[in-house]
Specification:
Number of helices: 10
Structural class: alpha/beta
Organism: Pseudobdellovibrio exovorus JSS
Radius of gyration: 24 Å
Protein name: Gingipain domain-containing protein
Keywords: Signal
Pfam family, one: Propeptide_C25
CATH topology of the largest domain: Rossmann fold
GO molecular function, one term: cysteine-type endopeptidase activity
């Protein structure tokens, strides 16, 4: 079957907006070819500077993507190819399912979808992701490579133009100053110091108490929607675990019963997966636990540390697994960016480092203070499995970090972010003994996939270090949108949105 990449035009509704134009330029030296050792019939093809196709079973060929402020029917894309390069006698390797970051290996079968090999895939694809505060957001994918099954050739665009008639979407930096806090009556007294502090800083803080049976899904969702409509709230904090105030149960690749708060905070219908409100949970069973967790947010904003050197320190923990990139490459890139932009000291714990990558070594690092900590590896719900020696919940009380900067933890591992007591994330937020734990924690509630959460974590760092967001929730959402702009698999983007939950203050001031 023949195909032509020259002068492809996807027609849709015209717009009066100024067009965005992009140049596609690929040098022959950017194209990498590697025969597969497992499946001899296929060859890996990649192009430096581009992403690859993410549709499972399809040829893994280069793709460029953009987020656009419009619905799919409003978007017109013009893709002109001026020059291509053909690779003969090559059948590109098919995209495989993502590995899991759970503690136990999952059995996967080799996937190939012959439909995508028999005929070319659409050169332009548009997916609607949702609406952010009334702004529709779609992702435009332009496929720069195609496979011809008749000739057994790959053709890659090396010189071309892409023109999109609607403006690009970037996560906005706007003034945000309004909170809604939803709490069970028996825990509300733990909010006093926090609400007083926030109001002293010019924030509007609404507090709503709920009791059974008014704390069911529909009632909580309606309450949050009411405050969004009437007060345009920017932040929301739910006090209580998933049993105290329920979570939605949604089907994701990690679990068909994934506990998720996302639907509380999307305001534009069932096909909207972009939250309009930056939100978090405070998992607590007592007034004292609520007070203690939020006191760490107050301390962070006041910079009231006896030793504040940790504000210029990043801790990265990397497994010895993964490829294209590996976990160690992801963590190294984040650490390098912190060092380059902020002059931060980087404490890097690689799994193969027997001397330092262990619970005692990590706690020594935490005891010096750090503003950010990113972990990438496997998790069980109660552990980080990819230090050289596993770090368990029981090691958290051995920290001695009361007087130093407590970290914001980005956890790229399975199950550790479950919103119940005794999980790793909640244990960092509610430590026992003399440990102070973490200022905030961002993790997944179920089994999560390999690369998308890592790309998100990379995006959180890159976007914040570039744009200097004021609030933690902004940096986290910018990371999610960074993933959405670089990963052309809508289902996997939505999964990541539904997995990840913040514990702590979404309005935490992180400008320092």
């Amino acid at each position: 079957m023949k195909f032509n990449l020259i002068g492809l035009i996807l027609l849709a509704t015209l717009s009066s907006h100024a067009a965005e134009k992009f140049k596609v330029s690929i040098h022959s030296t950017d194209i990498k070819i590697q025969s597969s050792q497992k499946e001899n019939a296929f060859t890996h093809v990649s192009v430096d500077g581009t992403e690859s196709e993410k549709t499972v079973g399809a040829p893994e060929l280069p793709v460029k993507s953009w987020l656009v402020q419009a619905k799919p029917e409003q978007i017109k894309v013009q893709f002109k190819s001026f020059k291509t390069e053909k690779l003969s006698n090559i059948k590109p390797y098919p995209v495989q399912e993502q590995d899991c970051r759970c503690a136990q290996d999952q059995i996967k079968t080799f996937k190939v979808n012959n439909k995508f090999y028999a005929q070319p895939m659409n050169s332009v694809n548009i997916d609607y992701l949702g609406s952010y505060r009334g702004i529709p957001v779609s992702r435009v994918d332009v496929r720069l490579g195609q496979y011809n099954s008749e000739t057994n050739e790959v053709e890659i665009v090396t010189d071309g133009d892409v023109t999109i008639n609607m403006p690009l979407f970037t996560y906005p930096q706007t003034e945000r100053n309004s909170y809604l806090i939803v709490s069970p009556l028996e825990l509300v007294d733990g909010l006093t110091a926090f609400t007083e502090w926030k109001r002293s800083q010019g924030y509007t803080v609404h507090v709503e108490t709920v009791t059974s049976p008014s704390n069911d899904l529909n009632a909580i969702q309606a309450l949050i929607k009411k405050y969004y409509d009437e007060h345009s709230i920017d932040f929301a904090i739910i006090v209580g675990d998933e049993n105290t105030i329920p979570m939605f149960r949604v089907s994701t690749s990690g679990s068909y019963q994934t506990p998720s708060d996302l639907k509380y905070f999307t305001m534009d219908g069932a096909d909207d997966y972009i939250p309009d409100v930056l939100a978090s949970r405070i998992v607590a069973t007592s007034v004292e636990q609520v007070t203690a967790q939020l006191a760490k947010s107050i301390e962070f904003e006041q910079r009231a540390f006896q030793d504040a050197s940790g504000l210029r320190r990043f801790i990265g923990i990397a497994s010895n697994e993964g490829s294209n990139p590996s976990d160690n490459q992801y963590i190294t890139s984040i650490g390098d960016r912190h060092k380059e932009v902020n002059g931060s000291e980087v404490l890097h714990y690689y799994q193969n480092d027997r001397e330092n990558s262990n619970p005692a070594g990590l706690n020594r690092g935490l005891n010096t203070g750090a503003a950010w900590l990113t972990y990438m590896g496997h998790g069980s719900g109660t552990s980080w499995d990819n230090l050289n020696q596993t770090y368990y919940v029981r090691h958290i009380p051995e920290m001695r970090n009361q007087t130093v900067v407590k970290p914001i933890i980005i956890d790229v591992a399975c199950q550790n972010g479950r919103l119940l007591s005794r999980y790793l994330g909640t244990s960092f937020m509610n430590p026992t003994g003399e440990a102070a734990g973490a200022a905030a924690y961002y993790g997944g509630t179920v089994n999560i996939s390999w690369h998308p959460p890592a790309v998100m974590a990379q995006g959180i760092a890159f976007q914040h270090l570039e744009k200097k967001f004021k609030h933690l929730g902004e940096a986290l959402m910018a990371g999610q949108m960074y993933l959405a702009s670089r990963w052309n698999n809508k289902t996997q983007i939505i999964d990541n949105m539904e997995w990840y939950h913040l514990q702590g203050d979404p309005g935490l001031n992180i400008q320092f």
